[in-house]
Write a structure and sequence with these properties.
The chain is α/β, with parallel strands linked by helices and 377 residues long. 26% of the residues lie in helices and 40% in strands. The protein contains 7 helices and 19 strands. Strands 13, 14, 15, 16, 17, 18 and 19 form a 7-stranded mixed beta sheet that branches. Helix 2 packs across helix 4 and helix 4 runs antiparallel to helix 5. The radius of gyration is 30 Å and the shape is elongated.
Length: 377
């Protein structure tokens, strides 16, 4: 009789815990996989925070948290990861009642890009592992991995050339919103510049002196086409790095800078374009656009975009930099139309060591071969 009662008791407990877990296992259970708040840089290290909260009385002896991220993000420890087209993560937690667990997962950023975690799966069991329960949570976690910086030593030469051209061609105009100081009135001063408060205080005419601002802009053309049937990813990534480094350098020097590419913006699903601008927020906008840029899908030839009027010619106040390993005649001719009235424009060609940089159809632009070593190709 005692054995029967024990058996009945065991069955009752089994059924009870089964019912409790089926009904309440996901109550008060939350999980998150959040990338770090600031962007990363290609070649650097970043992290994400994996958090599980069990705000109920039932313990979860085993809780699996599953999600996937881009395979280019390589976890420092390969445990609980499987890599194929994506990196699939499967982490195991043992969560007590009313407990919060946070883990910091570090990874190496092997490639520039825009990475997202859109969902994660929670898988758990009852106390006797007689079945499993599954719940899918939607997430909105993303990480920008900026392109790596180009070689500063090589970048400095064309940068200084372009800066010299900008300084010699820039038209200085008065910025009415930036006050530099106050000085004595001169006969050539306009009455509109008189500072009447300072005049009344000193008893002599005083005028405002404003800062000057340069109207010269820099615009970069980033071409993702190739002269070869095979398209080198290394040459394209080097071109993107050069573009990003130029933007950062010119904007830091106070010159409004923008870029256009026939690579596709993964968010807008159209050729990537950022108009000329200045300031730290503009650099961030450009870097994010470069991170989202894709060249693994069909793209329009760059010269076609130039001739169809997608780009407006403003040679009188703009210097152009073409960054392209592709040198086909049609592209040279199209670029010539932009830079022939803008002397000092530049063409940088990321090429293999044995490739020649020949630009016979674009004499108005300065040219520079940017050799990409074999260990990168």
């Amino acid at each position: 009789m005692e054995l029967i009662l024990m058996a009945l008791g065991a069955c009752f407990l089994y059924v009870l815990q089964r019912v409790l877990y089926e009904r309440f296992w996901k109550k008060g259970l939350t999980a998150d996989a959040a990338f770090q708040g600031n962007p990363a840089v290609c070649g650097g290290e970043a992290y994400l925070l994996e958090t599980v909260v069990n705000a109920k009385f039932l313990p979860l002896s085993i809780l699996r948290v599953k999600f996937r991220i881009g395979r280019e993000l390589e976890f420092v420890t390969g445990e609980n990861s499987a890599v194929s087209d994506y990196t699939y993560r499967n982490d195991v937690f043992s969560v007590f009642p009313y407990q919060k667990i946070t883990r910091k997962l570090r990874f190496h950023c092997r490639k520039r890009g825009y990475y997202e975690i859109k969902s994660l799966d929670l898988v758990s069991h009852d106390l006797f592992f007689s079945g499993h329960f599954i719940e899918t949570l939607s997430l909105d976690s993303h990480l920008y991995v900026y392109p790596a910086a180009a070689d500063c030593g090589r970048l400095n030469v064309p940068f200084q050339k372009m800066m010299g051209t900008c300084l010699s061609r820039s038209r200085l105009v008065t910025d009415p919103f930036e006050l530099k100081g106050i000085r004595e009135y001169q006969t050539y001063d306009s009455m509109r510049s008189v500072n009447w408060k300072a005049t009344a205080r000193t008893g002599a005419l005083k005028v405002n002196v404003h800062e000057s601002t340069a109207s010269q802009n820099i615009f970069l053309f980033l071409n993702m086409d190739s002269d070869y049937p095979w398209a080198s990813e290394a040459l394209r990534e080097e071109a993107i790095s050069i573009c990003g480094s130029f933007i950062d350098a010119f904007v830091s020097a106070g010159i409004p800078t923008g870029f256009f590419s026939n690579g596709i913006d993964a968010a807008a699903e159209e050729p990537s374009f950022v108009p000329a601008g200045a300031g730290a927020s503009h650099v961030t906008r450009c870097m994010e656009a470069l991170s989202r840029l894709r060249y693994d899908i069909s793209q329009t030839p760059f010269e076609t975009l130039m001739r169809e009027g997608s780009l407006e010619k403003k040679a009188e106040d703009c210097l152009y930099i073409m960054i392209s390993s592709c040198k086909r005649p049609e592209l040279q001719t199209a670029y010539q139309e932009f830079c022939r009235y803008s002397p000092g424009s530049l063409w940088i060609a990321p090429l293999r060591p044995e490739d020649e940089a020949v630009f016979s159809l674009c004499p108005a632009a300065l040219t520079m071969k940017w050799e990409v070593p074999y260990d990168k190709i």
